[in-house]
# Entry
Amino acid sequence: MGKTAKKTGSPYAGRIAARGHFRTLRLDTPFQPRIDALMKRNDWYSWGGYRAPNSLWDEELEYFAIRSQAALFDISPMVKYRIDGADAEAFLNRVTLRDVAKLKPGRVHYTAWCDDEGHVLDDGTLFRLAAERFRLCCQERHLPWLLDSAIGFDVSVVEETEAVAGLALQGPTSFAILRDAGFAGVENLKVFDLSDFPHENGAVTISRTGFTGDLGYELFVPSTLALSLWDRLMESGQTHGIRAIGYTALNRARLEAGLIVANADFSTAEHALRADRARMPDEIGLGFMVDLAKGHFNGRRAIAAARTGKTLRHVLVGLEIEGNIPADHAIVYHRKTKEVGLVSAAGWSPLAKRNIAIASLSRPFGETLTDDLWVEIYAMRELKYEKMMKRAKVVPRPFIKLDRRTANPPADY
# Structure
C-alpha cells in the first residue's frame, strides 16, 4: 500500500523537486534590477500583478527615512492612462468629479470618478500635461470603461502603465536631491505643479505631489530611461540620506497624512460584491471634490439626490485611540454595546505620538454622534489573545500637518 501511494500519489513530485516550490509569476518594473540589489528581506507583495517590496531592509527605519531624510519608492505599477484630443477636457469633465476646466496646464489635482449610481469607481491624480493632453493615474484598471465613456468625444485613451516608469521621492531632503541632480528650476514647483526636465536623451516629468503628507515629488520617465534616472537620484542623494523603501513604511506615512487607499479604506464599485459595500464620495471624505456647478457628470443625479434626501449611510472619520496598541481592523462600538463601524487602517504615529486610525462608521455615528465610542482590540500576550476595549475620539484628518510640504520655495535641508 505504501509503495503504491508513493508510485501513483505524487505525479508532480519530480517537477516540484526541480523547481523547489510552486511559484506565482509576477511582472517586473523597469526599476527591478536596482530594487532586487537592495532587497535584504525577500519581503514581496503583488501590486497589480507586479512584484513590489513590502520592506527592503527595515520597515521602521524606512519610515524614518521618509520623515527625516528622503525615501525613494517605485510607483511604476500605478495604472496610468494618457488622454489626448480636442475633447479631452470635456471628456474628463464628464467622467470625473472635479471641474477639469479649472485645472491649468502644468498642474495636478486629486479627483475621483463614479458609476451612474454615484458610487466611487476609483480615486487618483489627474495631470494636465498640456491644453489637450492629460495623464490619469489610479489604483485599478478602467480602460474598457474609459473607452466606452469616450464614445462621441474627439479623444484618444491609451494605457501607458508599462511604457512610463514612476518614482516617488519623499522627505525633507527630496528637494535638495533634485537640485543637486541638476534639475534646474525644480525649486519653482509649488504643491501640485508639474514640469518637464531634460534627462539623458529624453525628459522626465516631475510633479510636486506624493502620498506621505511631506515635502515630496513624483517623477515619470519613459521606461527605457528608468535605470539612469534611479542612478542619477541615488548618486545625488548620497549626502542627503536617500534610501529606497517599501510599501509598509509608505502606508504608515499615508495614514499620518489621513490619506485613503482604494479597496483598503473603501470598496470600489466594481469590487464590491454586496450592494451595501459601495460608497458615495460623501461617505469616504471625498465630497469636497463634487462640483455640481460644472454640469453633468457620472453619478451627478444620484449624489445630489442623496444629499437632498439625506440618505447617505456612512462617514469616514479619523480616530484617536487611547493607549499605543494599533487597532487594525477593529470593530467600533457606541457605549461598548452597539456595533457602529470598522477600522480600515491603524497604527502608532511616531510623529504625532498618538494611536491613530481611519474608520468607516454608520451615520449618525461619527457625524452628529461622536461621544462614547470604543474600539475592540485583540492583542497577543504570551501566546494568548487578550480582548481590550479602548476609548476612541473622532479627530480631524490629517493627523499631522508639516509646513515643509507646502513651503515655497521648498526648504533646503
